[in-house]
Amino acid sequence: MIEAQSTGDYKATSTFYLKNGKITNSTLKGDNSDVVECIYDSNDQLTKVITKDNSTNISWQKGNITQLSTQSKNYSIITKFVYTNHSAKNFITLSELEDCIPAIDGIDPILFMQGYYGKFVNNLVENAFTDNKPIPTPTDEVEDITYTYTLDNKGKVVKVTDNNGNIRNYTWK
Question: Which end of the chain is more exposed for a tag (fewer CB within 10 A), N or C?
Answer without folding.
Answer: C
